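Same chain as my last thread, 325 residues:
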Amino acid sequence: MVKIGNTELGEFPLILAPMEDVTDSPFRVICKEYGADVLVTEFIAAEGLIRDAEKSHNKMTFHSSERPIGIQIFGENVESMMKAASVAETVSPDFIDLNFGCPVRKIVMKGGGAALLQDIPKMIRMSEAVVKSTSLPVTVKTRLGWDDAHKEIVEIAERLQDIGVSAIAIHGRTRAQLYGGEADWTLIGEVKSNPRMRIPVFGNGDVDSGLKAEEMKNRYGVDGILIGRAATGNPWIFREIKSWLKYHTIPPVPTIAERISVVRRHIETSISYKGDRATLYELRKLYGGYFRGIPNFKSWRLKMVTTPSIEAVLELLTLIETTVY
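reply #2:
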């Protein structure tokens, strides 16, 4: 049984990787229903939490059905990260996750996310300070290194473990790669096979099917897998992977009725969570995933992403369900 602290995650947990403007509570709940074992919030700026910014605090909102869940924070200041962890602790997540992997320029330029891969001693100091500032387990999500010349993840993982980090998730790319090229799981496997490592090691990058998940599990021995972009608008990826790992069968693709039902519920719960306007714009990036593989659907998807109101989107869904498919 894989654990983070005292929280049991299952024998081989599938984790929904945090993604900004995607993995909010409404989407996380849906992914949980389709088989995600562990959820993590969108990343939250430490400065936003300690300055009581409404948007940052709203990102910490989660439903009890989402457990086990971690709140992910990022920042460049050690003191701020300690304070942010204390704020996050007040809503009682199962763990605090530190983001040392986000490659986005605006985050890195401010010294957060993957920027810490250029200053490993600071990364370790920051992690240790957060571990000491909270009673919750602390986990880390990071990358192989800053670039091809600095793939230091084996040493980083050891040092993080030694200062009290409870688990580590590794994306199989460097910061320089961003999201391009293929993820390299070789060093993730080296971290896991390191005889000094005792904490769970989770792998991340390019897992988009049950077959790929099985390959990564068997070849590299990881304790679990994070699913990121493959889950965007595609919550049934968790159902597919679990079915393949357990039975070596692939479940039927979701029907158009099931897809529309999920989209409608996603819209309705998102409205109550963040309002009409944010829902209208943020869900547009998910429609392509929700209806991927449906023949002759391109024109309908175009209408969905250009429709000017939530009411019109819901009417369009009804039209599709009742008259087209």
